[in-house]
Specification:
The complex is a heterodimer of chains A (301) and B (316). Chain A is mainly α. Chain A has one domain: MetI-like fold (Orthogonal Bundle). Chain A has helices spanning 2-11, 22-32, 34-51, 53-56, 88-124, 126-140, 144-155, 159-186, 189-196, 201-237, 249-252, 270-293. Chain B has 316 residues and is mainly alpha-helical. Chain B has a domain at 93-278: MetI-like (MetI-like fold), CATH 1.10.3720.10. In chain B, helix 5 packs across helix 12 (249-262). Classes of the chains: A mainly alpha (301), B mainly alpha (316). The interface between A and B is large, with 48 and 53 residues.
Chain lengths: 301, 316
């Protein structure tokens, strides 16, 4: 990807993102959008926790200790223990790993689906566009959560199913944003020039359209990471997401643990708080990215 | 205006066709082993065998015949029968839909009473501390999951003050007070989560309007700030906010599913969840149809009111 964009940068006039290398871009982000940069840093922290959860977790994730049941937060158990004496911090850490895995995989899949549908619809236009757009219209009238509940009831709960279903769901919904941006890029001079020189369609799509819609795609991906994490948690909360005893954040707030929250209110805090912080930080970061990369999308969601 | 209404109605047809196809395909994705599960789970297992269930679902026919048969029934108001209770799906919907509707309506009132004043305030005091606080609040509300807020409201008041929200549903016409005291907590939570987006939108739109020349003129001729907002700014600034309410209808229904589960509100969401766990597919597809058509109608109404509020739209 980086090689392809670098070589296209030499003859396309001014691709939006290649002009600033990764580091320079983040410096600019830090200077112009400090809140967004802080959001990004917090998210990176959780990502780090997720990646190294196995090492960081002080106890085994399903290690029960009936003597140490329902203990309030202490130096030994920072976030307390649950009704089976399992260490809440360890479970929240593994939960972070799960959330991040689902978030990144599902958002990645969603982005690919959005790009394919958006380019097909926006670049080729005509009947293809009509067909895809009416389908997207119909798809969007159903609430996300309802579609998910229905599909999960058919394919069953589990991480791979959740990732695929979330990816398709948000991919179809996001294709409209990609389409809009493809239509704009299609009318750029360099695209017309390439077309009139007889470049193959694939070449135009990869070398001219794709690099120029990258800002939109990056923002879309970022926002989707937050959305998929939140939706997976809601599904697990309803008992339709990742089945117990796997400690998904949503699942930790529901099921049998719920009755014990009155005895150990800290059980209700950690998973929800982590979820809120993660989603908030990635949203703030995404907003900042959007302002810097694509001012036209400002205020949309 | 008439031509506009007709145009909007015709534009609905392809969407409706696709929507019915989505519901149909979703339901017909049922793999064979789910029928086994139904046989194992449901009481009807004793009276009906596999072939009978397949025939009841119409699964022994070719796909296109299944579709037309199903859509034919739907057009005549026949959504099938619940596999579990063996009552018509329409009957179950008639029981649960008004309850969810009440919840959504209360939530909408809460959302607007919170979002409009704060959004307007935020726009008028752009870039002040108050603006930052309200904007951060709305960003946080976007990130806080409704099911967590619901859980906190259940747990902490009970631990601290021995008070917990009512969880027994009473029909509104039987005892309005008891009904509202049960519904108000989920409605407020749902409304707060909706208010976040509405607040942002109100602020953006007001900012745009406040920069217009006619606002400057109104200011220059010495109109009080309040009059200027009420008479000039709101009228134009709120048009896109109306659209947003339509766009949020699906969000509201999704939130209702979760809050109905936490607060034991016997609405459509709770029925859907039960149906999912019982694999009661006719109920699931019935809920989908009602929600789909409902959202389309709300969007149509929003479009029409948009055309009515803003004459420019009609003539496009």
């Amino acid at each position: 990807m980086s090689e392809a964009t670098a070589s296209s940068a030499s003859f396309t006039s001014k691709p939006a993102i290649q002009t600033s290398p990764f580091v320079a871009f983040n410096l600019r982000l830090f200077r112009e959008k400090p809140l967004g940069a802080i959001g990004g840093a917090i998210f990176l922290f959780f990502l780090f926790c997720g990646v190294f959860a196995d090492v960081l977790a002080p106890y085994g994730v399903n290690e029960t200790d009936m003597v140490a049941r329902l203990q309030a937060p202490s130096w030994e158990h920072w976030f307390g223990t649950d009704h089976l004496g399992r260490d809440v911090l360890s479970r929240v850490l593994i939960g972070a790993q799960l959330s991040m895995t689902v978030g990144f995989l599902a958002a990645g899949l969603a982005t690919v689906v959005s790009i394919v549908l958006g380019i097909a619809s926006g670049y080729f236009g005509g009947k293809v566009d009509m067909f895809i757009q009416r389908f997207v219209d119909a798809w969007m009238i159903f609430p996300d959560l309802l579609l998910l509940i229905a599909v999960v009831s058919v394919v069953g709960a589990g991480i791979p199913q959740i990732v695929i279903v979330l990816g398709l769901l948000y991919g179809i919904a996001g294709s409209r944003i990609v389409r809009g941006s493809v239509i704009t890029v299609k009318e750029n001079m360099h695209t017309h020039a390439a077309q009139s020189m007889g470049a193959r369609t694939m070449h135009i799509l990869v070398r001219h359209i794709l690099p120029n819609i990258m800002p939109v795609v990056i923002v879309l991906f970022t926002v989707r990471v937050g959305a998929t994490i939140l939706t997976e948690a809601a599904l697990s909360f309803l008992g339709l997401g990742i089945p117990p005893p796997t400690p998904a954040w949503g699942g930790m707030l529901s099921g049998t643990g719920r009755t014990y929250m009155y005895l150990g209110p800290w059980l209700a805090l950690a998973p929800g708080l982590c979820l809120t912080i993660v989603v908030y930080s990635i949203n703030v970061y995404g907003d900042a990215l959007r302002d810097l990369l694509d001012p036209r999308m400002r205020g949309s969601r | 205006m008439q031509a506009y209404v007709v145009r909007r109605l015709i534009a609905l047809i392809p969407t409706l066709i696709f929507a019915s196809l989505i519901v149909f395909v979703l339901m017909r994705l049922i793999p064979g082993d789910v029928i086994d599960m139904m046989l194992a789970q449901n009481d009807i297992a004793t009276t009906q065998d596999r072939a009978a269930i397949e025939a009841a679902l119409g699964l022994d026919q070719p796909m296109y015949i299944q579709y037309f048969r199903w859509i034919g029934g739907v057009l005549q108001g026949d959504l099938g029968r619940s596999l579990w209770l063996n009552t018509p799906v329409t009957e179950r919907l008639a029981e649960t839909l008004p309850i969810t509707f009440e919840l959504g309506f209360l939530a909408l009132i809460v959302a607007l009473t919170v979002a409009l004043p704060i959004g307007i305030y935020s726009a008028m005091r752009q870039d002040t501390a108050g603006d930052y606080i309200t904007r951060s609040f709305s960003l946080i509300m976007l990130a806080v999951p409704g099911f967590w807020l619901g859980t906190l409201v259940m747990v902490f008041p009970s631990v601290w003050w021995r008070w917990s929200p009512a969880l027994v549903y009473t029909p509104f016409f039987e005892d309005p007070i008891a009904n509202l005291s049960h519904m108000i907590v989920p409605a407020v939570l749902l409304g707060l989560s909706m208010s976040a987006v509405t607040m942002r939108m109100t602020r953006t739109m007001m900012l745009e309007v406040l920069r217009q020349d006619y606002i400057r003129t109104a200011r220059a001729k010495g109109l009080s700030e309040l009059m200027m907002i009420v008479r000039h700014a709101l009228r134009n600034g709120l048009i896109p906010v109306v659209t947003l309410i339509g766009l949020q209808a699906p969000l509201l229904i999704g939130g209702a599913v979760i809050l109905e589960q936490i607060f034991v509100v016997p609405g459509m969401g709770l029925m859907l969840l039960e149906a999912v766990f019982q694999r009661d597919y006719p109920i699931i597809s019935g809920v989908f149809l009602i929600v789909g058509v409902g959202v389309l109608l709300i969007n149509l109404l929003v479009d029409l009111s948009y055309g009515w509020l803003d004459p420019k739209v009609r003539h496009r």
